[in-house]
## 1
Amino acid sequence: MRIIHTSDWHLGQYFYGKSRAKEHQLFLHWLITQVKQHQVDAIIVAGDIFDTSTPPSYARKMYFNFIGQMQALDCQLTILAGNHDSVAMLGESKTLLSGLSTHVITHVHHEVSIEELAQKLSEETNNEVNQTESPSKLESTEQVFAINHANGQALAVICAIPFVRPRDVITSKVGQSATQKQQSLQQAITEHYQKLYQYALQLVDNIEKAQGSRVPIIATGHLTALGVSMSDSQNDAVRDIYIGTLEAFPSSAFPPADYIALGHIHRAQKVGKTEHIRYCGSPIALSFDEAKQDKRVLLVDFSDNYLNSVTDLTIPCFQPLLMIKSTLELLPEIIEKSLKALSIDSVNNHQSDIQADDEKQSNNTVWLDIEIAQSDHLSDLAFRVNEIVADLPVEVLLVRRAKKTRQQQEQGIATENVTLNELSVDEVFSSRLTELDWQSDEALARKSRLSVLFKQVALQVTAQSNTKQSELLDAAVSEELAQVKKGESQEHTEKNTVQTSSSKSEPSE
């Protein structure tokens, strides 16, 4: 059996006001090609399908079109909700999509005990299983199920755990400290994994009796595992505080499944130096911090129903990003060197015909984040930078001062040189808090609560703003994609016209 492990698509993301629609469309096209080329049996998407709880309509269209194309290829899908996804939005179509060989798991179900699951499984085994029935008939919970071959034989058992929201697994208790709440959440998540794994073992047992061979158990998760390397995505950090997610889940607390497909961290990596617990990372760079990462999906092979190999399938870079750190004087030289290096890397990394075709369709303009190491007051900094890059194949999305300068500004040094557009919302609020006197323990606790409350409000306002922005940009993106299709259609028509004219002009024998 062969699966592809992917996660954190963030369909519908707007990046400093720029739509990622073309990049996501090219990625999905590339992914479909990999499914065909490697004869993949199933895909697991480990959370964060969408970037917000209210994704634009073009993002939903991409999602449903992709599912339809997978159905045509007899490739099954398991889709897990992440912390960015709306449980309600994903849940509204899950029943319909189940008819397209797609399992959508929106939230955890903790109300059933292991004993009840075992009893239910036993009853199903006694009452339903006979010589002609498929082992998949043993499925009896939304989170534990078999994925099957076209001939009806079970290929694997999935323990599908989406993003775990505290309210789904624990009840808040009066007087609990933040540490105690974290410990309670970790214990509850551990118990949930173990409960589903025990049920999966019994399901595997029954499948083995029915078809004469063992099948592997594949678990999933959308969380932060202990010891992983994270990207500095501020949006993820704000969202984590808002929903009260677990800070880090120890790898030793995972059950001994054959493979554990994780999402939430955007950098591909192994967990706890293991081969079978993996993050695949996001398919495109979702922040400038991720610009230098090679994005990938993981091709997971099982031989004799045990994990055999995990292979990286490197995704082409459809939209290059660059983070430039320089003084204003050296900026032209550094940008030129960076663009040359980027061009060389692109040639070395993308050699196949399919990748070359995808690259032609992508945007060749490089998006820049420029950090200027200059503390002098320059009210026309953005204007000067744009003048410097005017003749280069780049677009400047962000201009800011160096981190050291910003730290001085936070400490109240040289604040007269700061312009508001250089500061994030959090930095503005933090700067205001530093002006007040926080001496006593009570005052410090109040400061901490204010910071958390502010992040919650900022998140809600950002979500509302994104919704309005998505409605405005959705029409623009749809029109742009329509123009691309129209251009392709016209090119095809012109080619046919030329061929027809050519054939008519040839003398008849």
## 2
Amino acid sequence: MADPSSYRPRPGEVPDSPGVYRFRDEHGRVIYVGKARSLRQRLASYFQDVANLHPRTQTMVTTAASVEWTTVATEVESLQLEYSWIKEFDPRFNVKYRDDKSYPYLAITMGEDVPRVQVMRGAKRKGTRYFGPYTHAWAIRETVDLLLRVFPIRSCSAGVLRRAAQVGRPCLLGYIGKCSAPCVGRISEEDHRALAEDFASFMAGDTSRFVRRLEAEMREASADLDFERAARRRDDLGALRRALEKSAVVLPDATDADVFALAEDELEAAVQVFHVRGGRIRGQRGWVVEKVEDVTTAGLVEHLLQQVYGDADAVADAAAGGAGGAAAGASPGAVPREVLVPVEPADAAQVTAWLSGLRGSAVDVRVPQRGDKRALLETVAKNASQALALHKTRRGGDLTTRGLALQELQDALGLDDAPLRVECYDVSNLQGTEVVASMVVFEDGLPRKGEYRRFAVRGESVRAGDAQDDTAAIHEVMLRRFRRHLADGAPPAGSPPAGSPPAEDGAPGSRGVAAGDAVPGEVADGVAAHAPVDPESGRPRRFAYPPQLVVVDGGAPQVAAAARALEELGVTDVALCGLAKRLEEVWLPGEEFPVVLPRQSEGLYLLQRVRDEAHRFAITYHRQRRSSSMTRSALDDVPGLGPARRTALLKRFGSLKRLRAATVEEVCEVPGVGPATARAVLDALAPASTTPAGGAPAPRDGRREDEAAAEAPLRVNTATGELLDD
């Protein structure tokens, strides 16, 4: 652990102005981002006597090796920059709300020519309007099923829409009245888009207009003695009312608000939010967060509002999806008129100004004191308390078992420390074809999928035709991985360690830049260009961080191959083991007998999870490459030859064999193909032993190519059984 005094900035170097600061560890990775009204006062608070700091702050400052800062003009700008950096660098000591992307939304793809209503999860797409989130996807489908009777817009996939248009017959929904069938021209695209706009307006809270319209049409049809149409309008009205019953009225009509509540203890906090639009609860979601930094309830509220509303792109996408009010009123990323919180955020005035800027009009961030809004806040708080209790019940055992697993591995493998970062490698091939390898990463016993890597093995074993030799593949992959680590993460001989003072100014590991000169991700002094963080992008290099333990899928031969690679590179600070599938034995390099862990061992279970994940990742990549190779043509690699001209060539000649036998003049007869492209095509198709001369390439012995090909042995793709002659 580093001594904070070793990288403390000199007195007077830190400006007394608003800004954002970053702490980096010895590898140059950002571990904490914060903002301050006065950078000088805030940073000084971190460099007092360590014993006086909160335990979490102690851990952070002793893990860090340098600090840097960026000044900004206003506190609102510091709020925006802090959120951007937290999202970009994912610092381990910042509060992060993890579960917001798993909730389903009702989405209307207004950006398509024929808008579609569907259930969507994950990142928001431009030109799509979102409503929700909902707790369950079936709740969305029930609502859509009711509303399609009144707003019969498209709900099918692009493939179904295209096939229906080709055959001139709609799908089942078109026959039962739950789709207006734009695919076969029953309704124009303009009228269908108007239906989609009405659907979106209803979901955004403008419900009374459609109820009144259906009631008027029902009365009008009854007055005209058109009782069948009146009955249909009556049923449509009933469907609308049943859909409205699914969202309870909790606040006076036309109230748009997001209601937040927290339940917390010293280690964790649970958050719940109800999205109220038009007085009705249109969505609900929740998070549980670990308090990895010393933060108050007001600070938690500020971080929460940053995450929920901080992604300006989500707000822009919602607005791009259609006329701002409806989209903004429905999208959870958009800002409503009122934000109700249990306590005011730490910098209430700046947060309010920031939210008002995002919305484009005034936003009221306040704590409700009485009435319906206070009652709703208490209901949300009860939900948060129940969520925290449920999370602690589920998570308590998980934390214990993960800690036990790491401790068991440390003891069984004789490691100095628990293996907090574990990397596992596996090789996948099919009879020597498409040889690939995978690298998966587990940190603190959990998968870190952003660090996963995959390799296409292309070493000597593949070129020699012995691609089924797993040991050679393991050796190659380990060399490639740790060469990159040494190149990206290891400083050159004689360079100062990360966090040491530069020769010219002696400010230990500190860096200050003005707002106009700030470079996103710029590394601090003492973190050289060879550091794990790319000085240009500010992001970690791909193989910069070493593992504490490397696991290979296999027994003693695979472990020996990996150990040989590490020895060749001089890597001595990384532990190595292998897990053999048959008896689940753990092999160590140089050992005659394996380590046998008990079947009920949590350490063995963790190794199995890591190994199985590496196998899944490797075989997925292998299948992708195998599928692409089955549909790959020799013309794909010809420079300047696109899909249209490839299709034209094959249509003209019928096969690669006939194209290979053609002359330059014959190839030039294909529309769009000139002499240069024709020569490039024939050069690419020419046999390796042939020197093209502007005409049809011929074998060395002067025979016609078709005669030589008839005598040549057939080549077979062993994965598919396909003849590879052409």
## 3
Amino acid sequence: MTSPTPPSTAHHPRRRAAVAGTALAASAALALTPALAADAHPGHAGADDVRVWVTTPDGTQRLTEQAPTRFTTGSSTRTTITIDPATTYQTMDGFGGALTDSTAAVLYQLSPAERTQAMRDLFSPSDGIGVSFLRQPVGSSDFTAASEHYTYDDVAPGQTDLALKHFTIAHDEKQILPLLRQAKKLNPSIQVVATPWSPPAWMKTNDSLVGGRLKDDPAYYDAYARYLVKYVKAYAAAGVPVDYLTVQNEPQNRTPSEYPGTDMGVKQEEKVIEALGPLLKKASPQTKILAYDHNWSTHPNDAASAPPDETGGETDYPYQILDSAAAKWVAGTAYHCYAGDPSAQTALHDAHPDKGIYFTECSGSHGATDTPAQYFSDTLKWHARTITLGTTRNWAKTVADWNLALDDDGGPHLGGCDTCTGFLAVHPDGTYSKNAEYYTIGHLAKFVKQGAVRIGSTSFGTTGWNGQLMDVAFRNPDGSTALVVHNENDDPRSFAVAVGSKTFEYTLPGGSLATFTWPASATSGAFTGTALAGLLPVSLAHATATASSAPDDAKLAIDADASTRWSSGAAQTPGQYVQLDVGKITELRRVAVDAGDNLGDYPRGWAVSTSLDGKHWTTKATGTGVGQLTNVDLRLTLARYVKITQTASSGSWWSVADVRLYR
């Protein structure tokens, strides 16, 4: 890896430097469940309770269970996170980090009893956070305790070993593999992605693990492919099957700082994958290949160092791989966090929906003068919105940070990052403490099980920070739901969570991260009754919109992203409107008008009209707005066009973050 910029000095780390014609009646405000209730009795949660765990940026609450709350029937006037179980996205494979050589070394500095407890804290689903995904370096990375960097087939300078007679994983048998086997005993469902930082030096143009390229020779592509297969087979024989394999860590990081790395352009990666694919399918068919394994966008330093034969810096690297003949061997694309933002994952998914998205690395870091309290707070908030929520809301099937444990100095390391942090910090006195990454991953790993499916949920915050509420929701294989919410604001925020006709309210402290879980039985009956039975979302993927003002922004009201909005830009007056063209005649039974997290921007009065041709309109419902979310239930209606019109006045602007249609 390369050195992240600390979250305290930048906003993200960087490598290198009902009844027809009426709305659902709003119930009286539901009793608020305080997030830090003094009389909390988390052990007394009932079978249908919503359980809550909170981590605060000041560290006073660290994945701490709070008093439970419950769904009740009715709606809320507050900002409402609407859960839509009928809308599904990716299936989750796991969450975690890397058990690097450095991690293994510092864990072995602990006493056997303390090391066992640390492993339980990391991997036990019941006593710890249940880390379920590991990214393992194939050979040395910058995070090694060794005095020299290494691979599994090192020979003297000037020599070669095309037959791989010197291949051995003896180095890993000392500490890494015993810990991996212990981890798998604690959590048998752990999946592993393996990543090489460099081929053996004798395979490279500069005879070095640092920099250079793989020799452009069929014999060396074949040798490197066989090397990777031998690694997969050796690890499986040692009790650690490899589920995924990338062929080069950060292939565009051409000038690593005194640690292993390889300049592997698109054409070379294609050749490696085409050599590896058939061999891997035969030797270990369950092991899938992931491409790229680098940043959301090309880091400026990487673009500046691009050689002439890597045209334009290959800023579309993952697209080129998936558009090539090598794509048939590729299961998906791996991403890192050190340049760009998570929306790149959705862009690639939309271009190649048959290929998975895997997020595989992001290290916490800090400034040289930052206190532990500072970097706990800064890392918690940046990772919460960008990694915990940003990656998963953008199709990531896995979420992995970096080192699971480091010492107080962010080491040991040999080159590379000197400000990095791990999940655990191991202290000279033989104890350890937990850093923010433990909790940002823990809020997912402990509650979102392998095989869980991300489901629809309205989210108002952004990875770039806008001071609003950001969230992601999952349905576990047992039917339970896990909802993770981050309050981006420094002040407490009160909000509601709605599933069909069921709602609960909560207040989350400023900057905090929370996980809510509830069993399927907690929302039983939420979608029954004449208004809700069989309600299904209408796709607006091909819809268009216009409005009485700022018509170019009207599309923001139908983009299925509640962090964007159309706004009237002026006080509410009768006649303001937002109009949708669904693109074809469809059945409608509900229109949801969501003002988002801009408090007070809801319509004080409204009318919903529909049309088949955009010229002849029929008013279907009218009402008075009482809160941020207005659900308008209709008799079964056929329409192509829908218009929401303001019918009252207010000094507040009118904002529409999302219009959602149901049939």
